[in-house]
UniProtKB/TrEMBL annotation:
Family: In the N-terminal section; belongs to the thiamine-phosphate synthase family. In the C-terminal section; belongs to the Thz kinase family.
Full protein name: Thiamine phosphate synthase/TenI domain-containing protein
Pfam families: HK (PF02110), TMP-TENI (PF02581)
Recorded GO CC terms: cytoplasm
Entry function: Condenses 4-methyl-5-(beta-hydroxyethyl)thiazole monophosphate (THZ-P) and 2-methyl-4-amino-5-hydroxymethyl pyrimidine pyrophosphate (HMP-PP) to form thiamine monophosphate (TMP).
Keyword ATP-binding carried by entry: yes
Gene3D superfamilies xrefs: 3.40.1190.20, Aldolase class I
MF annotations from Gene Ontology: ATP binding; hydroxyethylthiazole kinase activity; magnesium ion binding; thiamine-phosphate diphosphorylase activity
Annotated pathway: Cofactor biosynthesis; thiamine diphosphate biosynthesis; 4-methyl-5-(2-phosphoethyl)-thiazole from 5-(2-hydroxyethyl)-4-methylthiazole: step 1/1; Cofactor biosynthesis; thiamine diphosphate biosynthesis; thiamine phosphate from 4-amino-2-methyl-5-diphosphomethylpyrimidine and 4-methyl-5-(2-phosphoethyl)-thiazole: step 1/1
Phylogenetic placement of the source organism: Eukaryota, Fungi, Dikarya, Ascomycota, Pezizomycotina
Amino acid sequence: MPLDLSLYLVTDSTPAILKGRDLCTVVEEACKGGVTIVQYRDKTSDTGDLIETASKLHQVTKKYGVPLLINDRVDVALAVGAEGVHLGQDDMVFEAAKKLLPKDAIIGISTSTVEQAKKAIADGADYLGIGAMFATPTKTNTKAFLGTAGTQAFLSEISDSSVGTVAIGGINHSNVQRVLYQSKSPAKGLDGVAIVSAIVGAEDPKASAAKLAELIKNTPMFALTPQPSRANEVEALLQDIPAIVRKMVEAHPLVHNMINFVVANFVANVALSIGASPIMAPYGDEAKDLCKFDGALLINMGTLTSESVSNYQKAVQAYNGRGNPVIYDPVGAAATGIRRNAVSTLMAGGYFDLIKGNEGEIRQVWGSNAVQQRGVDSGPSTLDGQQKAKLARDLARRERNVVLLTGAVDYLSDGERVIAVENGHPYLGQVTGTGCAIGSVSGCFLAAHRSDKLLAVLSGLLLFEIAAENAAAKEYVRGPGSFVPAFLDELYAIRTAASKGDDGWFVGRAKVHEVKL
Ligand SMILES: Nc1ncnc2c1ncn2[C@@H]1O[C@H](COP(=O)(O)OP(=O)(O)OP(=O)(O)O)[C@@H](O)[C@H]1O
Ligand SMILES: Cc1ncsc1CCO
């Protein structure tokens, strides 16, 4: 039988996690819930106790056809006839374990560097435990966290091997899907995730394991193999846009905005004008209720305070956990050290379906080659169109999401396709909050049209920018002040036309092309 590493349970007998319950009962519940492999890990018990518990555990796992591995102790594995062992870098060396164990025993190795991984592969390990992914209360001595970007780089270095791979460290319901799809390198992905507290420490280990198994099974994996570029690809995309706008208006999605106080009123009015239902809710604990409406969450860190990041994290966790779209607008990301730190913390702790920002902000999120922003403006642009398109494409590829880099020309990418949008009007750059409003509008479309995130965002962007063009063309609009009410009127006019099935607003208006990189 091929090794199924998808939901890999690592036990923990510490009282804070096990909470006085019997480990065998917890493991049995976890097996019922759908764990596919169990590692018995106990660093403190005496050999006699280890053998007694391992033997009981093996009775349980055998009942469910789940392999049992013993952490570190080859002797214990032999004593109870377990299916294999898991060895850390400081445990018995691979060759010695291989000699002692039966020929078909499973041997897994913990690795935190590519060098260790290559050695384990050369030795003949069945799978690698790769980590630590994130910080975790169960392992306090871990020095470095790979995160999903680090894991992706790690996997691409060993992509010529068929060795099994399991990520470990801080993985739970709220991040398991993004761990799986963000970590995937073009040629190799993770075969599973190792879970400790999210099952052993759960009130109901069976339900918790079942939920994790379901999330793993339903993880959308983006194909990263380059798609053959279809002729007229952009035309094909544009054809669907009026119908998607109509769908969004009919869905009347809730958009939960954690937004700066400068633009809150304008952004709420934009969302209302297009037919959505906005709520401005900066208190993170509210997200567990609000996410149940299956709308979208916008994190806009324009007026960051000392409490913002923890509020954002709670909300992102709630929306990620339910699989609802989250948009990140890292306003002023490169303006101060506090904001730069906030970017790192948020990017490490949650999944964003869309990251949108101006050039300075997107460069900061990308990491290298960042430039100092002066306030919330983009700062001096040093990138030409091709470079901006590449930045958007590379970030989307790294994060397995969609990136929108705004400016006089907007660049939108999902890591494969890159679309340049030339619609809009210079007045948009003269009114505060237009970029912020695009975050909210994108959320409405991502909530209503889930099968193609890039197309969802493109639909909202074109609605927004064509309305701006229509507003600026009114004879009574003389500048940014009179532009704003006219703009809201035009958003409303398009939404009204769209809901009646009138697509005239869109015919011949899109100034969009695909960027070839
Ligand atoms: N000169 C321009 N011509 C056409 N469209 C423009 C121009 N400047 C900005 N826009 C449009 O305005 C919108 C907002 O982009 P911008 O880059 O100004 O966002 P931002 O800096 O995040 O804004 P804010 O922080 O004020 O919300 C985008 O849709 C963009 O296409
Ligand atoms: C001007 C300004 N300052 C913080 S947020 C904001 C609105 C535009 O992003």
